[in-house]
Amino acid sequence: MVPKKGRKVMGFRERQKTAIEVTTRPPLKRSGPILAMRGRQLIAVISVVFVGTQAGNVQVCRDLKSCAACADSYIHVLGFKEQCRWCVETQSCGGPLSCPFGKPVVQRDLFRCPTTHSEAQGKRYSDALGRSLFAVSVSVRDPKPSECLRNVRPDITYTKTYEVECDGAGNKCKGLLGVSDEAKALYVAYKGTSFDKQLFAEFLHGLAAQLGAWEKFESEEAGVITYFHNAFYKLFVESGMKDDLVDLQKKYPSYRVWVTGHSLGGSLASMTALYLVKTGSVDRKKMRLVTFGEPRTGNVAYAKEIESFIDFRYRVIKKNDAVTNLPASADPNTPLLTASMYNRQPLYYRFLVHYDNLMQPGDSFKICELSDDHGCRNLAMAGDFSDHTSYFGINQDDYVREGCPRAQLIR
Question: Where is the Fungal lipase-type domain (predicted)?
Fold first, then answer.
């Protein structure tokens, strides 16, 4: 039936509410002012119910002025729910096709909104810091790390190494604890991936993770790749490495704890940092996490936990390093990506430090404030394995064979 012009057509909920109100209404022996007041109260109740059911739904996206509000809102287009998009470059909110093509966009999850990194002394990343920590990571590849460190980081006077078989194929995982009185620092460093059966095993487990097969890591929601999960517990927890670190902390209670590693070692480093802070083993104010060439270690919840518990955190990536784009992650702005699918995706934590060059002394870098690097580097081009093996212009195995000459890495 077509309603007469000017007449409002009531929906089911309105008709139901009206019917209830009519059947329960007492005899109309009320004065005009009282009836008017009752009417206003009823309208107020209906208004509250209506607004409460429309949370997140807006009429026009462009009226929203912040990334958080925009990413948490949606409109209806031809009966379909359509997320609002925050255009990072123009700092504006809009609907479909509103942002410049190829530029960073945030939608669906306000976690992906830009987060400012600190430039304060003691909280910022520098090239000198990166080189100094990479030297510690490289030393773990040496059969005798203390000899390598004696040349490249002579301030680290105590070391202890740990090595275990981290999979059924006999591949080894190796870690190191070190102490520098000069830097007032404790170091936890991990060896990177071996480019043979170990990389292939990681790749297979990464494929499983893309399908949602994550191992829970210290929470019900946060998950990591199975290979990393098993390696972490075998190497850091079961080998005695964790207990020795706790003892070192008791001996040096004021020292900061620096956790680092390259490739697989980067994933183990991020898991170690999160584990230590969540379990209360290390005060978050003393925790420092810097990784090199780290792949996507965990899912969305894992990335969120890293950012929630670790304040000082940087992922250093060289140019188009292929390993850093594994396992593959769908662009969060893909229209067919449901909320459930999105939460099962691999995701990076912030902050990316991207060297879009050869990482020679004096080369520049960019720090990305967006999650998962979308809009900060060309992920479609991240397929160069030679970039993964030549951070700061050195081949790690050659560097170790040459005795870890300081001048090649630290200037």
Answer: 187-328
Indicate whether 25 pLDDT > 60.
Answer: no
- Tell me the pLDDT of the chain averaged across its residues: 85
CB within 8 A of 226, min separation 6: which ones?
205, 208, 209, 213, 214, 215
Q: How many other CB atoms are found less than 10 A from the CB of residue 311?
A: 14
* SS3 annotation, the chain: CCCCCCCCCCCHHHHHHHHHHHHCCCCCCCCHHHHHHHHHHHHHHHHHHHHHCCCCECCCHHHCCCHHHHHCCEEEECCEEEECEEECCCCEEECCCCCCCCCCEECCCHHHCCCCCCCCCCCCCCHHHHHHHHHHHHHCCCCCHHHHHHHHCCCEEEEEEEEEECCCCCCEEEEEEEEECCCCEEEEEECCCCCCHHHHHHHHHHHHHHCCCCEECCCCCCEECHHHHHHHHHHHHCCCHHHHHHHHHHHCCCCEEEEEEECHHHHHHHHHHHHHHHCCCCCCCCEEEEEECCCCCEEHHHHHHHHHHCCCEEEEEECCECHHHCCCCCCCCCCCCCHHHHHCCECCCCCEEEECCCCCCCCCCEEECCHHHECCECHHHCCEHHHHCCHHHCCHHHHHHCCCCHHHHCC
Query: Are 155 and 77 found together in one domain?
Result: no
User: What's the mean pLDDT in 376-388?
Assistant: 91
pLDDT given at position 26: 45
Q: Which domain holds residue 98?
A: 62-111
Look at residue 199 in the predicted model and tell me its pLDDT: 62
Comparison of pLDDT for 370 and 259, the residue scoring more? 259
Beta carbons of 284 and 311 less than 8 angstroms apart: yes
Range ranked top by mean pLDDT from 99-103, 321-325, 327-331, 338-342: 321-325
Can you give the pLDDT at residue 210?
57
A 10 A CB-CB count for 337 gives: 14
Give the CATH number of the domain where residue 398 resides: 3.40.50.1820
For residue 292, the cross-strand partners are: 262, 316
User: Do 258 and 125 sit in the same domain of this protein?
Assistant: yes
Say yes or no: 269 and 189 in one domain: yes
Task: Assess contact for 105 and 70: CB atoms under 8 A.
Answer: no
pLDDT at position 80 is 86
